[in-house]
Amino acid sequence: MNAKGNYSIFNDFPRMLLFPLIFYLVCFVILTFPLILKFSTHYFQDEGDGCQNLWNMWWVNKAVTELHQPVWYTNYLHYPHGSTLLGHTLNPFNGYIGILLQKFLTLGEAFNVMVIFSFVMGGWSAFYLAYIFSRSYWGSILAGYIFTFSSYHFGQAQGHMQLVSLEWLPLFIAVFYLLLEEPSTFRAIASAITLFLVILCDYYYAFYSVMTGGILLLHRGWRRKDFLFIFRRDYVWPIMLFLYLSLVTTGVLVGLFLFANARDPFSAGAADGGLDVMSLFVYGAHWRFGELTRFFWSRTPLATSETSVHLGFSVMFILVYAWVNRNRIDAKHIRLWYGIFIFFFLLALGSTLRIAGVVIPGIILPYGALTYLIPPLRVAGCTVRMAVMLFLSAGVIVSMACTRFFSEFLKSNVLRVLFVVLLVGEYLPAPMNATLLDPPPYVDVIKRLPPGAIVDTLNDKCKAHCLQTLYNRPRLVGYLSRYQESVERKYGEVDEVLLPDIPRNASTLYKKYKLRYILAPADYQPRPHLKLRYSDAECTIYELLP
Q1: What residue spans of 247-382 are helical by DSSP H?
Q2: Helices (runs of H) and strands (runs of E) counted in the chain
Q3: Contact in structure between 247 and 190 (CB atoms under 8 Å)
Q4: What is the mean pLDDT of the segment spanning 108-112?
Q5: How many CA atoms lie within 13 A of 245 on its CB side?
Q6: pLDDT value at position 8?
């Protein structure tokens, strides 16, 4: 950074960009080894929601390159009527990049590249944000490590690709802060672009970005003793440009979602998806030695991917140290980042206070009030995911305190090495999921059949997603993260009435729902209106006749 506050990475490219990227890449390979050896044979997520996210990348590529249509609607699921994907965790950013990657990589390899990219770029963007505030190079390297190799990130990496893709969240906060510090056209454009990249990965992260931006605005106004500063001459053009560009990018997507939700509501998220306070202190299931803490996380109501949010005692110790010594630490706005930490901690608790699995009744929490002020938030529900902001805030604070902490508190090299060992041990992840890409023989049979939609009664909803990326034809039903009420009603009839007795309802399925093929278990007993197309020890494929 020069005297004028130029934080451009191009002033010192090897130090500010190249080394951090290589460092986080090497760390990822080591922490997850031998995952990298499965790069071409597996995809780096589970057989549950990971299948859905693999489908997402496949669908974006198909919609753009083959069907030449927007990615936000599909009739390849819930055929023939289709469904909007505005409420679905589509994370189209990964899909768009995947289009380029699939020119020379397989779908699974392209997916894995984006998983690795999210970890590496997430570390770098947190490093850059921390460096802006702390100006401590190695402290900022540590901040990036805390953020991108957090228990939260590895927990979500089991199957939630949209939440793995957290890389643009710190970068938006960084460039928006710089916009408020020294407004310019370039920073206004950069802020709008990074915010759009955030929402192309995940709605949650976009919401957190906007809230953090609001906190930065208030903080800047308080420092200037002028809460109307954005209307001053130096700010009007850059702020208006940022708002305009955000409105025609992020705003359009938000508007379409709100309109779709108002016209045909999406299913609500988890009713009680708040943070258990003790989850910050107790190592979760996705820690390398998570079995030691099963007594805690096995009792929590949420999935283990959501409850793995322990900060680590090494990080907590620095947070306490930094607060006690806040007046002696030479860093910008350390109180701001404690404020952001506390703000998101309170919201992450959700509507119900829970400590060690015990619900504490009679306490009104901020998020409950927020859902009344902003009703569409009821579609979200899983407030524990705000823990991502706790790791980001903690990382920035650690970068601010790191120099003084190591020079004053950990004076000997032995203590410093022990501290690093403790940090790495606390952040050591359990092996990441890797799902084998091994298509069964009947996939090739389905590919060769004449055109027509299929219903898969053999496989679970997640595996059916993966297989669809191989045989490439519409499906009667499907698995989305959120459905509109009309889709749930319409296909409730299919799931509950028609599919349980396909031969009896073959005519309705053929005429009303355009169903042509049925993938069924090997012992499926055919009746009239069904023609056997294929049979083996695992499955049978039937064609419906008019």
Answers
A1: 252-263, 294-297, 304-307, 313-324, 334-348, 366-373
A2: 24, 10
A3: no
A4: 97
A5: 19
A6: 67
